[in-house]
Fold this protein.
Amino acid sequence: MDKRIFVVGIGPGDKGMLTPDAYKALHASDVLVGYPLYLDLLGEEFAEKEQLSTPMRKERERCVLCLQEADKGKTVSLVSSGDPGVYGLASLMLEVGRDRPDIPITVIPGITAALSGAAVLGAPVNHDFCLISLSDLLTPWEVIEKRLCAAAAGDFVIVIYNPASRKRPEHLKKAVEILLRSLPGERPCGLVENIGRDGMKSEICTLAELGRKEANMFTTVFIGSSATEVIGGRLVTKRGYSR
Amino acid sequence: MDKRIFVVGIGPGDKGMLTPDAYKALHASDVLVGYPLYLDLLGEEFAEKEQLSTPMRKERERCVLCLQEADKGKTVSLVSSGDPGVYGLASLMLEVGRDRPDIPITVIPGITAALSGAAVLGAPVNHDFCLISLSDLLTPWEVIEKRLCAAAAGDFVIVIYNPASRKRPEHLKKAVEILLRSLPGERPCGLVENIGRDGMKSEICTLAELGRKEANMFTTVFIGSSATEVIGGRLVTKRGYSR
């Protein structure tokens, strides 16, 4: 036992993408804290560890819980799927722990969906790209819309996280409508669902078609730049080597 | 031996960030192809493997070499530091191999510098962000400038790859001057050099100071959004939980 907090990214779920650093931190921990779905992804191997959680949208309480457990002298892992520093709890944990320099907080990065999903589709993020979350729980929709417009104006590849959920089934469609104001309908796009998990599926389509696709909170969406092509059935953004 | 190509991301260099999938692919390979620096990062463990390379800027030839080796019935790993799908050779390999469906090409993602560097600094990419390379070897500077302006207009966190090299020592300074047209000089920024390697160093500064910093091809630069703060000595982009 050693009073400290690891903020651990476990990647998409498949153990083949869990880094040795993350594995080591989980094993060194006395208690694992996380949304139950993420803890379940760790499987049998860690089922014996003490596991704690707080409900969805109680993220601040979850970080406070980590501090409380560390205060008992424990080593704590706050577990995120993907990378905790990409739409995860790393920033909130650092904020909540700001006045506790006696409790070291270490962020351990993981393979985020922009990388794992890209590898499934081919190489869509092989040149300048951006990540935009369509969740308006914590970000006003006007900000999301402004970023979509800026990303299109900059000819970035766009990776969309949280494209839809039960409460916001229309967000992806709304985003596509915004992008179609300036991008061509034939622009190549891709979707990957349940990356590295049971039931993984992926699909390549055009931007015009994308607005009619089903998406959920386990879907990651890729929208090509002007350098993106479908090559041999893969979604590929060229770096310019062939010019 | 099995005729196939893995395009493998080994992360920043530290074995703690090499995924099990990458490790397995390297071990299953008869030959490792890559820029010598990346192959050296793999260390003793893979020194016995046949290793091949082509000079810098001979990337197309390197991909053709992979096809030629696979054609001999070999399993080939084309090795990149970080993620091969992020400014690496994944897209070029898929392009070069497009007419060879008999040779399966699998992309294995890795921890790219935007993620590993972010974890060193704190949590700077914890909300919408974009990656921009300042290398104008394959991209006209006008495109790079357009993307910097769009990223600033969209209030994205910006991660800069290839901020400078011996032949382009002024690129970071030029980029900062462009960003200062619309962003405040006190905007928090960070630099990380040699992530996960000997001689790693990191620093937090303001955007105004960033233009005077030394950078090289092993430096990754982070420029905050309006939601980025320095909290307890870490660079943190808030997701909005505290509002």
Observations:
- DSSP finds eight helices and 13 strands in chain B.
